[in-house]
Amino acid sequence: MLSGFAIILENDILYCSNDSKYTTFEIVIFVQILIDSINRKRSWRLNNIFFSDQNEENESMILKHTVLNQSQNLFYCVIGDFNSDTGIAVHALEEFSKNTNDLFRDKIISNLKTPSEQAIFRERIETVIFNLKQKYSYVALNEYLDHHIGIGPANKILYAGISNQGLPIISKLYDNNLLHNTGKEYNRENMEMFCSDLSAKLATIAMNTIIRANMHIKEIQIRDVEEMGFDKIILYASINNYSVDFVASGNFNEIKEIFRLFHDRISGETIFNEDFTGDLKPYKHLSKYLEELSQYFDN
After folding, report:
1. Which residues pair with 61 in a beta bridge?
2. At what angle do helices 87-103 and 115-136 cross, to 10 degrees?
3. Of the ranges 20-24, 129-133, 293-297, which is most confident?
4. Residue 62 β-bridge partners
5. Hey, how many other C-beta atoms are within 10 angstroms of the C-beta on 116?
6. pLDDT surpassing 90 at residue 139
7. Residue 85: pLDDT band by 50, 70, 90 thresholds?
8. How far apart are the first and last CA of the chain?
9. Residue 298 half-sphere exposure toward CB, CA atoms < 13 A
10. Strand (E) positions, 120-253?
């Protein structure tokens, strides 16, 4: 079932078809802040986000992410209880973006300044949404459309970390290019600052998903338009009140299996049954798990 449509330009939600999904669409903005901070080449395109609610019911958001001539990020979003590769959702997303572009060129969308322009925009988009709902609410499209990504031939671990309520406990940066892309040279201090900042941004996304959308974020999928075969995936999990974050590239199915095994192994540590007091020493031994991760990846 398709439960909501949205158009987002940078940090503004220009249109949302379902007020109850507004806070979930806001998560796109937080994710893009993270992407911009670690991908200065602007070659990453947000593609899918997966959530679960308190009852473990899954919800998916698929996106069409384009970068306008003014270097602004424009997102067309569809959310619902569907798989990211299901035909009905992908068809609806493609028609949503195409029909909107037929009515408003990107230049116009990025310059809706007056109340009358904004009113016309909303009115016309509502007509597009009405027609899409009429078409897809009762039609099952069974053909497979390849909107899912992450089918690369090699896997690469980029980052892994454990935190508690946004406070980084232990982390490891496996790909120094992420640091180099920020314009900073590699040294211990810069690496630690980068990991701390990345951990905080990942935690911000997770906490805002819980607080604002009353959901848990499980997975973020990113298309890399420069490194073909190395699409990026961000995975989230928890152990009691501790968060486990994972960033990798390559074949998503294989990466998710590695992450599952990693999570299962580290979950057995009794330290996670204790409250975090701010003292990092009791957690130092967990670094062995991060060191072992590299052996499960191709490079």
Report:
1. 49, 79
2. 150
3. 20-24
4. 48, 78
5. 9
6. no
7. low
8. 40
9. 13
10. 151-164, 167-173, 216-224, 232-239, 242-251
